[in-house]
């Protein structure tokens, strides 16, 4: 008979019957091990321990011995032998001392626990089972996150295990107001999704909005955090990310204190921070570990890098093809010297160099580590020089492309750097077609898009577009930390206005 | 989205006023004005600014007295439905002309200066495309953008005016009455129409303000208008100081000023920033007018979708901007002679008439409440 | 997100893509499609038209490359004749095969013939109206034909156009010897009728097998007819005129030694002017203008040959001699320009600005009135430093 939700199949007192039902469902799962043990006087009572050897890394007798030792701890008291009745009495009524013990009554629950890494013990004559959580294989150690290194500061990054990550967060925010809500998604993957927020910092409307959007994901198998991002975000086709990823635990803790929501998914070290405003992408956690003046300079540099990465090639194309009168004369004559003899128009030349640079960049990521860095540097130099000698490109174009690439590397967050890399090309096209006017129109359209973009109901350009100059103390400059401690920063999110319903286009109109 | 009230804060409305009244005027006005009024052009501006201030006060009075209602609504209260439709027709015509003139102005600027070979329709269509898309995104989004763009525009203008200091010879401002008093009055007439008198059209945008803090709103709006006036006067003074007698001869004086700036002995051609300021100002003004037009039309026709008229209006304005003006002389005539007349004697007169009617017929809110008790 | 939404966006993208095809690259010109004009020389042809010679930058010549054999001049000179400037420019563009880009032009040279006989306003109109021209291009007249000057090899700069501009500027700054008259200033003057100004004049000089151009004087340009007067204003008067106009920035004043002193007749002390200010006032005395000029100069000793400024009395004497010299030079210069009825001091402008009623009476006859005007000059000189040496000549006789 098949177990149904209305009538879950229960374990019976017959051990062999239990074993048969388990083997039926777990057939061909050869890493599930059934261990039969005997206990009692004359070893005439049988017990079964079922566990998944790929998840449990323990000496197979350990838990059995430990449980029975729990029982026979009473040996010094009444001289009693261990019998099924005493087993039942001990575990069912009098509690136990070992860690993470659960009592299981249903077959499906037992299977779930086995697959989660528990050791399930069944005793002949008892219609319940005892399950212990066993230590699993060590996964990846906590190391510095590769994509977010800092010079000064903690080097703790998240790992694939949810409990380790949550533990690191809890250690930083030791308050009962840090709420962590679990959600299990998917029938096959049964991924645990954890949502963390600080009760008095998060804005209730934002939290409710997020929770309401997250509804419905439980039916799907969610392997990674990015699936949640796509499920929840306002605008799928915008190049700008509306949520931030991070692997740094200090950044996560800071974001939670800021009133953001952190979403962690088991088996993935990438943590989603919701909502993320454009201004969040311009700062790193290292900004808070260095001195004020230096942090301010670096932030200003980054803002400059933002604009350079976006607009430098298109500016060059617009100036050289439409407005040569704006280039200073001596520079112009120098450019002329080198541009004579190049067969391509400026746009095609720029396109060739940009695409080569993108290919180099991608290749640098995919190559194995020892070879990778050498190839990218040598490749860039050789290709640049060879291109100039072959008259495919002029030196000034190589400089422009190199500066653009370097500026995009200076942007700390990978997803916004991607956005800018994508947006460079429409700007170049606009500059080619209509020069400075096209560039202006394109910038206005981009500004319009960013102004209308919302993340979790918040305007994406909060602090810039609903202009609030007092927030700029943490965006454009970095005010001394004493100022920020005394006036905490979690006022940036806008209160009270309820987020509009998501329209058909997934974007609030 | 429709349920969400499109309310602007006082700061956003103040920036909106600067955008709509200054707009591109800072680049177009000085040369045409100096051509007419000579060295006393700044006197004309001061007089026109006073006139604009009076009109703005009337507009604010209407807004306060009618408790934030729309112009269409309170006209209906004051003079009835059919009369409202009749008086709104010239207002709609004025808005259409203004938008078309602004966009044609952008096109004319680019054709004469930076990109002479490109046809006019490219500039008109792309500018109006962006303005229409912004109008469609709603006035709240537009206001958010303008709060960013207005300081940029003003800053560019100020930076150019400041860096051009070596070019100024303040003696060129004398004699003040080199053309006589008559041309100065003529200049007053022109600038009372464009740009200062156009504040009468701002009455259509005021209803987007929130209901509270109307005192703060008045103060901020008057301040914003003051900024506009001061900027225009300073720009005109600087133009006369830089170019003297030739100031009226150059078409876009601020642009010419920017292209002659010398930093460290070399002529740095930074006139691109003035081009940018021009595009920004005109785009903001066009967006504001399309939003106002849309509101008037939707209130009169009573359609449910509040943004139904935006795309058709955009198309209409594009076509108008390409066909209304047949030559530069025609543009001069229409924009500097017909338009000021229309603004003063149709737009502002309408506002004054409505204000007078309001004063006569309605009681202020506090007195009405007292009367009820 | 429903399928209908995607469809709408897809259509939008398609339409926008079609919109971009509208643009036909009208104004788009690669840098290699332009010929950048560095300097222009305008002469008069026999039939009274213009002969326009342009100097166009030739890229690739200044850098030494292994593959190109010809590292020739960095510019190319092209000429054509027509009745208007635009026509001539069009013909040159046709010869070159590229469009002409005027925005990097540095110098505009007018041959003397052309400046004498054609209205400069015609020439200026083309340059003023054309897009992108830098107002800072300098205008100069030349002795003889202007196009010879464009064929000179530049001494250091890339092109002669740049060299000429540098020459102009340097001589204006260092020697106070010529006014830097840029295009924009000329345009402003052209709009105020009755203006008279000075245009620097170039002369070719041959120095050790190298040709060079120097400024040897100024021409008087009157602006309603837009033509220059024949007759050069000698360079020695230019200094003082510049001082009166307030355009004299730095320069040298030579103070000849007293003829009865120990030094020979040619020796002179030198005073280096660092700063010069002037004040000009015009009042009416008996219906005639009375021009009062006050000059105040500040500077240090350049060369001391026969005077010394060690004591206060010597210092006062030296300064008094300087002031007398400057006064007499200035009066001489004023006499000269008064004879030529050329109000290059902008005195009339001053009357117009500060006393419009008086100007109404005088306006029609101003050149005459100016020539008859009474002038008075007062000079004050401040000697602030003697340089790195003390205030006596290097080889000085011991004091008696």
Automatic annotation (TrEMBL), chain A:
Any one Gene Ontology cellular component term annotated for this protein: membrane
Pfam families: GerA
Keywords: Membrane, Transmembrane, Transmembrane helix
Entry keyword annotation includes Calcium: no
Segments traversing the membrane: 300-322, 372-390, 396-414, 426-450
Biological process (GO), any one: spore germination
Key word Membrane present: yes
Family the entry assigns: Belongs to the GerABKA family.
Protein name as catalogued: Spore germination protein
Organism the protein comes from: Cohnella fermenti
């Amino acid at each position: 008979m098949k177990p149904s939700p209305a009538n879950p199949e229960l374990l019976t007192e017959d051990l062999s019957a239990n074993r048969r039902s388990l083997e039926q469902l777990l057939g061909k799962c050869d890493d599930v091990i059934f261990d039969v043990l005997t206990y009692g006087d004359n070893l005439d009572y049988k017990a079964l321990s079922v566990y998944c050897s790929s998840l449990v890394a323990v000496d197979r007798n350990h838990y059995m011995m430990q449980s029975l030792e729990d029982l026979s701890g009473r040996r010094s008291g009444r001289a009693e032998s261990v019998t099924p009745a005493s087993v039942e009495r001990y575990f069912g009524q009098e509690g136990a001392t070992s860690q993470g013990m659960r009592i299981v009554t249903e077959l499906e629950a037992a299977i779930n626990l086995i697959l989660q890494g528990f050791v399930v013990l069944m005793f002949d004559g008892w219609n319940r089972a005892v399950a212990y959580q066993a230590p699993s294989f060590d996964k990846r150690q906590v190391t510095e996150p590769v994509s977010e290194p800092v010079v000064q500061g903690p080097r703790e990054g998240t790992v694939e295990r949810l409990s380790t990550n949550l533990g690191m967060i809890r250690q930083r925010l030791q308050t009962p107001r840090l709420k962590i809500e679990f959600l299990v998604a998917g029938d096959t993957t049964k991924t645990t999704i954890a949502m963390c927020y600080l009760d008095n910092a998060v804005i209730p409307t934002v939290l409710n909005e997020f929770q309401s959007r997250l509804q419905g994901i439980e039916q799907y198998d969610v392997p990674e955090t990015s699936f949640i991002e796509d499920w929840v975000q306002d605008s799928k086709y915008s190049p700008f990310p509306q949520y931030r990823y991070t692997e740094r635990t200090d950044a996560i803790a800071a974001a939670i204190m800021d009133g953001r929501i952190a979403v962690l998914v088991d088996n993935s070290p990438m943590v989603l921070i919701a909502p993320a405003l454009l201004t969040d992408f311009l700062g790193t956690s290292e900004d808070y570990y260095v001195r004020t003046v230096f942090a301010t300079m670096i932030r200003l540099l980054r803002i400059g890098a933002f604009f350079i990465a976006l607009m430098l090639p298109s500016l060059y194309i617009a100036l050289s093809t439409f407005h040569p009168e704006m280039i200073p004369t001596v520079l112009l004559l120098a450019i002329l010297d080198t541009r004579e003899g190049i067969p391509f128009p400026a746009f095609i030349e720029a396109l060739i160099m940009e695409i080569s640079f993108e290919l180099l960049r991608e290749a640098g990521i995919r190559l194995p580590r020892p070879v990778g860095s050498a190839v990218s540097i040598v490749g860039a130099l050789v290709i640049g020089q060879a291109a100039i000698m072959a008259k495919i490109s002029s030196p000034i174009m190589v400089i422009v492309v190199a500066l653009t690439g370097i500026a995009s590397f200076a942007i700390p967050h990978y997803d916004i750097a991607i956005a800018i890399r994508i947006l460079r090309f429409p700007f170049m096209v606009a500059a080619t077609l209509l020069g400075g006017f096209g560039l202006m129109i394109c910038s206005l359209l981009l500004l319009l898009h960013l102004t209308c973009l919302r993340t979790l109901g918040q305007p994406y350009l909060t602090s810039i577009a609903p202009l609030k100059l007092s927030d700029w103390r943490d965006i454009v400059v970095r005010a001394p930390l004493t100022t920020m401690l005394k006036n905490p920063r979690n006022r940036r999110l806008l209160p009270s206005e309820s987020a509009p319903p998501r329209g058909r286009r997934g974007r609030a109109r | 989205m429709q349920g969400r009230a499109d309310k602007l804060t006082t700061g956003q409305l103040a920036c909106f006023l600067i955008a709509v009244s200054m707009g591109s005027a800072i680049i177009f006005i000085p040369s045409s004005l100096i051509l007419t009024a000579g060295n006393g052009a700044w006197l004309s501006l001061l007089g026109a600014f006073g006139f604009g201030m009076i009109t703005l006060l009337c507009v604010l009075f209407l807004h306060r007295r009618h408790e934030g209602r729309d112009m269409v609504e309170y006209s209906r209260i004051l003079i009835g439905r059919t009369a409202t439709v009749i008086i709104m027709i010239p207002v709609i015509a004025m808005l259409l002309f203004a938008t078309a003139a602004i966009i044609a102005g952008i096109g004319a600027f680019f054709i004469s200066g930076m990109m002479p070979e490109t046809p006019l329709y490219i500039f008109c269509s792309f500018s109006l495309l962006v303005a229409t898309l912004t109008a469609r995104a709603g006035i709240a989004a537009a206001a958010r953008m303008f709060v960013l763009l207005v300081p940029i525009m003003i800053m560019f203008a100020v930076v150019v005016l400041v860096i051009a200091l070596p070019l100024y010879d303040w003696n060129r401002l004398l004699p003040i009455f080199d053309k006589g008093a008559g041309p100065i009055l003529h200049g007053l007439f022109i600038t009372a129409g464009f740009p200062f008198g156009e504040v009468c059209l701002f009455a259509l945008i005021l209803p987007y303000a929130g209901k509270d803090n109307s005192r703060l709103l008045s103060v901020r709006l008057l301040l914003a208008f003051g900024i506009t006036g001061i900027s225009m006067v300073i720009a005109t003074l600087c133009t006369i100081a830089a170019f003297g007698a030739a100031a009226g001869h150059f078409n876009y004086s601020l642009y010419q000023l920017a292209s002659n700036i010398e930093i460290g002995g070399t002529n740095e051609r930074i006139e691109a920033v003035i081009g940018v300021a021009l595009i920004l100002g005109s785009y903001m003004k066009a967006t504001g007018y399309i939003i106002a037009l849309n509101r008037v039309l939707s209130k009169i026709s009573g359609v449910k979708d509040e943004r139904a008229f935006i795309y058709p209006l955009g198309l209409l304005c594009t076509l108008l901007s390409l066909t209304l003006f047949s030559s530069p002389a025609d543009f001069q005539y229409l924009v500097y002679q017909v338009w000021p007349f229309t603004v003063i004697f149709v737009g502002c007169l309408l506002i004054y008439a409505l204000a007078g009617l309001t004063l006569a017929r309605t009681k202020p809110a506090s007195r009405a409440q007292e009367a009820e008790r | 997100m429903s399928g209908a939404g995607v469809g709408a966006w897809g259509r939008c993208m398609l339409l926008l893509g079609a919109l971009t095809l509208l643009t036909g690259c009208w104004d788009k010109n690669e840098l290699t499609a332009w010929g950048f004009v560095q300097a222009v020389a305008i002469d008069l042809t026999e039939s009274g038209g213009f002969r326009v010679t342009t100097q166009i930058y030739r890229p690739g010549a200044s850098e030494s490359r292994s593959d190109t054999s010809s590292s020739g001049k960095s510019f190319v000179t092209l000429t054509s004749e027509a009745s208007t400037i635009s026509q001539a420019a069009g013909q040159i563009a046709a010869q070159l095969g590229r469009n002409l880009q005027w925005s990097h032009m540095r110098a505009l040279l007018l041959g003397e013939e052309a400046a004498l006989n054609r209205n400069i306003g015609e020439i200026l109109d083309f340059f003023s109206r054309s897009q992108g021209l830098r107002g800072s291009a300098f205008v100069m007249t030349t002795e003889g034909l202007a196009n010879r000057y464009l064929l000179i090899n530049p001494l250091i700069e890339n092109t002669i156009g740049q060299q000429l501009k540098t020459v102009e500027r340097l001589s204006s700054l260092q020697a106070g010897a010529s006014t830097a008259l840029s295009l924009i200033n000329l345009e402003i003057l052209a709009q105020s009728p009755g203006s008279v100004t000075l245009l620097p004049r170039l002369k070719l000089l041959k120095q050790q097998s190298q040709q060079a151009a120097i400024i040897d004087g100024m021409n008087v340009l009157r602006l309603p007819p837009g033509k220059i007067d024949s007759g050069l204003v000698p360079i020695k008067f230019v200094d003082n005129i510049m001082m009166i106009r307030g355009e004299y920035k730095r320069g040298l004043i030579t103070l000849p030694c007293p003829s009865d002193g120990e030094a020979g007749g040619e020796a002179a002390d030198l005073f280096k002017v660092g700063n010069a200010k002037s004040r000009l006032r015009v009042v009416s005395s008996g219906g005639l203008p009375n021009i009062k000029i006050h000059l105040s100069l500040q500077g240090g000793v350049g060369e001391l040959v026969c005077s010394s400024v060690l004591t206060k009395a010597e210092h006062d004497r030296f300064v008094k001699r300087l002031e007398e010299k400057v006064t007499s030079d200035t009066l001489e210069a004023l006499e000269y320009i008064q004879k030529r009825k050329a109000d290059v001091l902008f005195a009339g402008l001053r009357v117009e600005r500060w006393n419009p009623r008086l100007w109404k009476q005088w306006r029609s006859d101003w050149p005459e009135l100016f020539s008859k005007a009474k002038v008075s000059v007062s000079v004050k000189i401040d000697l602030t430093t003697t340089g790195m040496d003390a205030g006596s000549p290097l080889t000085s006789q011991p004091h008696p």
